[in-house]
C-alpha cells in the first residue's frame, strides 16, 4: 500500500510499504477514506518531537471502512464506516475506566521512555513518534487499529466522511479546551491561535455558552476566518499589546478563560521572541512560551488557562508569580476523544456543528509532501488539508467558503 | 502512636540504607582527592584565579561530601550503586499497580510457568516439585544459564519468596509482595530481586547475563504483567504478524 512516511526534518515522502495485518484479537484493519494533516504533525515535520525514525508512517486523523476484524471484536463488522480517535486506549486500566482515555496505562508499548522523561506515560497515539508507542499512522491506504471495541465510533448513515474526519482529533480537542474553561453565562473566552483547533475551540466555547470569544493570531486570513466562522472579535498580536487590549475589551478584568491553541512553536514579538528562538535552537529550552506568557498576563483573576497546544519539554521564563498572585487554574493535556465522540457525532448529525467548514485544501495522498510544505508555510490561506488515499482523487482545490 | 513511630523509624532506616551508594575504596579515594582538589582551589583563589579556583573548591567539596557520606547524587541519577554491586550483589526493586484484586495477581504469579510470559530474560520456568522449580534464562548474544530454585515463603494473596539452590551460575533470590491498593485501584505488586554476579573467567558469560538485568528491565517486565492481566495480552505497535 501507499503511505506518507517521515524521513527526517522537513522530509516526508509517499512510500510503498507492506499492508498492515490483524496482529491481536481486538484489532481491526481500516481502509482509510479520508485523512488530515494535523497542526501537531507539523511539530514532527519540523523535528521538534524526539524518537521519530525514518520510515515511520504519519497521521492520526483518519476515518474509513473496516475491511477486516479480529476474533475478539464484537461492536463492529466488516463494512462499518468508523471514526478512529487519535489516542489509543485499552479500556481496561484505571485511567480508561475514569474516562481519562488519552492517559491510558497500557496502550503505549514504549511507556518507559515517557516515564523517564515525564514521570509517567500517556497512551499510544497513531503516527506520533516512538515516545507515543511507535504505532503506524493513518496517512496511508490501510491502518491497523488496536482495541477497536474501545475506541471506534460508527458513522451514522448519510453523513459524509468529510463532516466527521475532524472528530478524530481537532474537534474533540477544541471542544475539550472549551469544556476545561468551565464556562458560565456572560463569560468571555480568549483563544490564542486561529488555526484549526483554535477555530473549533471558539465554536465550542460559543456552543457551551460563552457570550464573547476573542481570537488572537498574526495571519489576517486566519483572523478573518475566526471572525466570519466563529463570530469572534479578533486581535493581531503583531499590531497590539494583547494583554492591554484584552483588558480594554473586558472592562479592565481580562478574559474569564484563556485557551492556548498554539503550543511549543509559539511566536511572539520583539526581544522575547528572539530570546525563545535562540534558546530553542541551542536546545537550552525545548518549547517556546510566548503565547503562554501572554495567557497568564491577560487572564482575569481566578480565571482558567486551558492548554491544548502541544508542549513537549521545558520552557523558560514562565510567570509562576503571576499564576500564584492571580489564583489561576491550569488545565491541559491530550484530548480524551472517546469521552466526547458520541455527543459530537450527535451534534454533527443534528447539523448543530459542521467541522468540515474549516477544511481549506483537498488533495490526493500522493500530494502529501506538497501539502506539508503548504501547511507549514501557511501559504494559500491554508487552514486544514484533507488527503484522499485513492490515486484518482482530485488534486488540490481550495474550498469555496 | 507507637506503631507509627516504629514505622517512621523503619522508613527512615530504609532511606538511609539506600542513600549509601559509593563503595568503601571509592569513598577513601573521594576523600583524598576531594581534599587535594579543594586545597589547590584555595591556592588558585589566593593567586587570583577566581573562576577556576572556585570551580576546584566546589568539585573538591563535592568529592569530600561523597567520601564522607557515601552518597553520590550522580550515581543515584544514573542508577549506579557500587556498594550493593560489589559487596552484596545487585538489588533491583520495582513496584506497579495492577487493577485486579491481590489474590488474582498472586494466582497468576504462583503458576510459575507464567513468569516467562512477561519476564523477558526468562526462557522457561518448570515446576519440579511442591516448592522447587527449574529456571532457564537467556542473556545478550544468546547466552543462557540454568538454575534450580526453592520457594521460601508462599502466603496466598500476599507474598512469595524464592532463592536459587545448588550451584547456580548466578545465585539469586527474590520476593514479590501483593498488597491491596487504596481506593479500589487493585493491587500494588512489589518485586525485589537480588543477584550475585560471579567473578573470574568461568563466570564471565553468566556475569554478562546478570549485567543485562536492571531496574528498567524489571519495570518493563512489570508493565507487561499489567498488560497481560488488565488487557489480556501484551500490547504491541507491530503492523504485521511476524
Characterization of the model:
The complex is a heterodimer of chains A (401) and B (242). Chain A has 401 residues and is of the alpha/beta class. Chain A folds into two domains: 227 residues, Quinone Oxidoreductase, Chain A, domain 1; 162 residues, Rossmann fold. Chain A contains 14 helices and 18 strands. In chain A, the strands form four sheets. In chain A, strands 3, 5, 6, 9, 10, 17 and 18 form a seven-stranded mixed β-sheet that branches. A six-stranded parallel β-sheet of chain A has the order 13-12-11-14-15-16, with helices on both faces. In chain A, strand 17, helix 14 and strand 18 form a beta-alpha-beta unit. In chain A, helix 6 packs across helix 13 and helix 7 packs parallel to helix 8. Chain A is globular and about 60 Å long. Chain B is α+β, with helices and mostly antiparallel strands and 242 residues long. Chain B has two domains: 55 residues; 142 residues, START domain (Alpha-D-Glucose-1,6-Bisphosphate, Chain A, domain 4, 2-Layer Sandwich). Chain B is built from nine helices and seven strands, in the order αααααβααββββββαα. In chain B, strands 1-7-6-5-4-3-2 form a seven-stranded antiparallel β-sheet. In chain B, helix 2 packs antiparallel against helix 3. The relative contact order of chain B is 0.12. Classes of the chains: A alpha/beta (401), B alpha+beta (242). Chains A and B meet through helix 3 of A and helix 9 of B.
Amino acid at each position: 500500500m501507499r503511505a506518507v512516511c517521515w524521513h527526517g526534518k522537513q522530509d516526508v515522502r509517499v512510500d510503498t510499504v507492506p499492508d498492515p495485518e490483524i496482529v491481536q484479537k481486538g484489532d481491526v484493519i481500516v481502509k482509510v477514506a479520508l485523512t488530515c494533516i494535523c497542526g501537531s504533525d507539523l511539530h514532527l515535520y519540523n523535528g521538534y518531537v524526539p524518537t521519530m525514525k525514518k520510515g515511520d508512517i504519519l497521521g492520526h486523523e483518519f476515518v474509513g471502512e473496516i475491511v477486516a476484524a479480529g476474533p475478539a471484536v464484537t461492536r463492529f463488522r466488516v463494512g462499518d464506516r468508523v471514526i478512529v480517535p487519535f489516542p489509543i486506549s485499552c479500556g481496561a486500566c484505571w485511567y480508561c475506566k475514569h474516562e481519562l482515555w488519552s492517559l491510558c496505562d497500557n496502550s503505549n508499548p514504549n511507556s518507559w521512555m515517557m516515564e523517564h522523561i515525564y514521570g509517567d506515560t500517556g497512551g499510544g497515539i497513531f503516527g506520533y513518534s516512538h515516545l507515543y508507542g511507535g504505532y503506524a499512522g493513518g496517512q496511508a491506504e490501510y491502518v491497523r487499529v488496536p482495541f477497536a471495541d474501545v475506541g471506534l465510533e460508527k458513522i451514522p448513515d448519510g453523513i459524509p466522511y468529510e463532516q466527521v474526519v475532524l472528530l478524530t482529533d481537532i474537534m474533540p480537542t477544541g471542544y475539550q479546551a472549551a469544556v476545561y474553561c468551565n464556562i458560565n453565562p456572560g463569560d468571555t473566552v480568549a483563544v490564542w491561535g486561529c488555526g484549526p483547533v483554535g477555530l473549533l475551540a471558539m465554536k465550542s466555547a460559543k456552543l457551551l455558552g460563552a457570550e464573547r470569544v476573542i481570537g488572537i493570531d498574526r495571519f489576517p486570513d486566519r483572523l478573518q476566518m475566526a471572525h466570519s466562522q466563529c463570530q469572534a472579535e479578533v486581535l493581531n498580536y503583531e499590531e497590539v499589546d494583547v494583554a492591554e487590549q484584552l483588558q480594554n475589551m473586558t472592562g479592565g478584568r481580562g478574559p474569564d478563560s484563556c485557551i492556548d491553541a498554539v503550543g511549543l512553536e509559539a511566536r511572539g514579538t520583539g526581544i522575547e521572541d528572539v530570546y525563545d528562538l535562540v534558546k530553542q535552537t541551542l536546545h537550552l529550552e525545548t518549547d517556546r512560551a510566548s503565547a503562554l506568557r501572554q495567557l497568564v498576563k491577560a487572564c482575569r483573576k481566578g480565571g482558567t488557562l486551558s492548554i491544548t497546544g502541544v508542549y513537549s519539554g521545558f520552557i523558560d521564563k514562565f510567570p509562576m508569580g503571576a499564576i500564584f498572585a492571580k489564583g489561576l487554574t491550569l488545565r491541559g493535556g491530550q484530548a480524551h476523544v472517546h469521552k466526547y465522540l458520541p455527543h459530537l457525532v450527535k451534534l454533527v448529525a443534528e447539523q448543530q456543528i459542521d467541522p468540515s467548514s474549516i477544511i481549506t485544501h483537498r488533495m490526493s495522498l500522493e500530494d502529501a509532501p506538497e501539502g506539508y510544505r503548504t501547511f507549514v508555510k501557511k501559504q494559500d490561506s491554508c487552514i486544514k488539508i484533507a488527503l484522499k488515499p485513492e490515486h484518482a482523487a482530485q488534486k488540490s482545490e481550495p474550498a469555496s467558503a | 502512636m507507637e506503631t507509627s513511630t516504629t514505622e517512621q523509624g523503619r522508613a527512615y532506616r530504609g532511606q538511609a540504607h539506600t542513600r549509601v551508594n559509593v563503595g568503601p575504596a571509592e569513598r577513601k579515594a573521594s576523600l583524598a582527592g576531594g581534599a587535594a582538589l579543594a586545597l589547590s582551589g584555595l591556592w588558585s583563589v589566593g593567586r587570583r584565579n577566581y573562576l577556576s579556583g572556585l570551580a576546584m573548591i566546589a568539585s573538591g567539596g563535592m568529592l569530600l561530601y561523597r567520601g564522607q557520606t557515601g552518597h553520590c547524587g550522580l550515581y543515584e541519577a544514573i542508577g549506579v550503586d557500587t556498594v550493593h554491586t560489589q559487596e552484596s550483589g545487585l538489588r533491583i526493586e520495582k513496584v506497579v499497580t495492577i487493577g485486579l484484586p491481590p489474590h488474582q495477581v498472586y494466582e497468576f504469579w504462583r503458576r510459575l510457568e507464567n513468569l516467562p510470559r512477561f519476564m523477558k530474560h526468562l526462557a522457561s520456568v518448570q515446576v519440579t516439585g511442591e516448592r522447587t522449580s527449574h529456571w532457564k534464562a537467556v542473556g545478550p548474544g544468546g547466552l543462557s544459564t540454568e538454575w534450580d530454585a526453592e520457594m521460601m515463603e508462599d502466603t496466598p494473596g500476599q507474598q512469595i519468596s524464592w532463592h536459587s539452590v545448588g550451584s547456580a551460575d548466578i545465585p539469586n533470590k527474590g520476593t514479590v509482595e501483593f498488597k491491596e491498593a487504596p481506593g479500589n485501584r487493585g493491587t500494588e505488586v512489589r518485586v525485589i530481586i537480588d543477584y550475585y554476579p560471579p567473578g573470574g573467567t568461568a563466570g564471565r558469560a553468566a556475569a554478562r547475563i546478570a549485567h543485562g538485568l536492571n531496574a528498567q528491565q524489571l519495570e518493563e517486565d512489570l508493565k507487561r504483567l499489567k498488560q497481560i492481566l488488565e488487557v489480556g495480552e501484551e500490547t504491541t505497535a507491530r503492523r504485521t504478524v511476524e
